[in-house]
Amino acid sequence: MLGEGKGVVQNCAVIAQFLFGRLFGYLIFGVIAWGINRSILQAVGYREFIIGLAYVVLSVFLICYAFFRVRTSCVVQKLTGIVGRMKNTIPLFLPLFLGFFTGLSFCPPFLLALTSAADKGGLTQSILFFFMFFLGTSVFFIPAPFVGLLRSFSVMSTIGKLAAGLVGIYYLYSGIIMLMVGIKRI
Amino acid sequence: MNQDKIKPDVVVPQISLIKTLLLMLPMMFLTFAILTQGKLPSDPKSLFAMVITYLFINATFFMLLYTGKTDKFRSIFFITYAVLFVVSFITHLIEIRGSMAVSQANMLQGETPFCHIVIPMTLIPLAFTRTIIFPGTIIGSFASIASMFVLWIGVTLALGRGFCSWGCFFGGLDDGFSRILKRPVIKNINFNWTYLPYAVLIAVVLTAAISLSPTYCAWLCPYKTVTEFVEVTSFKILMQTIIFVSLFIGLVIILPILTRRRIQCGLFCPFGAFQSFTNKINVFEVRIDKEKCVKCKRCIQACPTFSLSEEVWEKGKTRISCTKCGKCIDSCLKKAIFFHLKGTPLSGNQRIYRILFLYPAFLFLATLAGGNIQDGMMKIIRLITTGSMFIH
Prior knowledge:
The complex is a heterodimer.
Chain A: H1 8-43, H2 47-67, H3 75-78, H4 80-89, H5 94-103, H6 108-119, H7 123-138, H8 144-147, H9 153-185
Helix pairs in contact in A: 1-5, 1-6, 1-7, 2-6, 2-9, 6-7
Chain B: H1 17-36, H2 44-67, H3 71-97, E1 101-102, H4 104-108, H5 119-129, H6 145-159, H7 163-166, H8 171-177, H9 196-211, H10 215-220, E2 229-230, H11 235-259, H12 263-267, H13 270-276, E3 284-288, H14 298-302, H15 310-315, H16 327-331, E4 337-341, H17 350-386
Parallel strand pairs in B: 1-2
Antiparallel strand pairs in B: 3-4
């Protein structure tokens, strides 16, 4: 849509809709993460063990995703048919829906974020966590309105992957520590 | 092209002796005002340290102007500044606290000196919570938060990322280590690593915003090894200590020696990445005259922060990560690289552009470094004369 040769203002509107949809999707997951904390994690006795294990497994996935060539599937790609139909029926809000669907993409960083948010106590903390996740994963869209399709996408992708690797190492360390605490308690 | 076959353009002093001395006068007056603050020290040792500092600053500026060599003399000053900053800082901490280690009580009292590297991490929490996530004091104390913000804004407006070569009190350490060997042992570094500082920036800014604590300072800052660090009271702090000491040894000492590049500044520092964007709004830049250039690639090999490559040569200017250290300019035998003032013609007088850049850059360096050099020198004089650096 950005490559259709519209002006900066129209591209800004598309990006704004897309990001708003994404934010909405993430905030829903903030609430879900809080729900998981309140229900499942409060009920079971091995909280540290479960969260620690999830951190370790998901951070290893994240590190692989960052430093090795891993093909990740995009939810939107799988919805090509639906998107095509929507483009005809609701063209005005299409970026909003696309943003929402990318917000639901279960990639390693997202799953790790969900685990981390579930580990937080309150609803506000969970929502704030996903809001920050949204901010961090949205900086790549800042130049988009000005250059149409991301001209320097490979650079952004490299930076994103390196950042994912660093965060993965941090969570791997946190996971190992938490796992050790969990094992001690068992 | 074979570098050895290139004949250098005739080297002549940039400016005549008389013009140099005239240009020196304002700097001599300003540095005198900065160092004395209107009053000469009564203690002979302090007076001696002040005189030596004053002569050192002005002799450096004289050589910068007269010889036309920027990096050669900047680096001497910059490295001296970094080493004496460490001497001054550590002795100051030991005098007031008795240790380089910060205890929980010190942090609760807001006694941790603030450093510019924390700035990018404080912005999001500041916007959302109106709190600065650092255990320092806002105003009035040694290295207060307000003074560091004011300093950063000033240097940023004047120099952009030039801060990293003309202001940062840490940069001189890896700059110094990168000059130890005459030839690099490691030559080929994957260009993708130059994006690592931006990744570190994103990671630390987000983790700082989520955890509301300066994560880079806690986990990664290698310079804590030579300034101050949290007292080891738990396994977590022990891990953090192992990490930052390892990073210091690797990024500030070993890799700069082996590569002859400023690895910490060019491939890791998140503040450097953040500061790179300010080069966009700064009026000074480094440009390449493609007609004069003979593509010998000396500048690419000389650049300590990987800010020159064959790709950017096509654009005729450095990457945004350029710290304006002047090393590429000094290394160019054909004078094809030069400081430039944005918005003015490229064919303008390069000497004037250079002087226009050198004045604010050197004045900032002298302002920041003067007190530290003087104090560090004072501590060394005290060590020689009394056998101890500390006031008992």
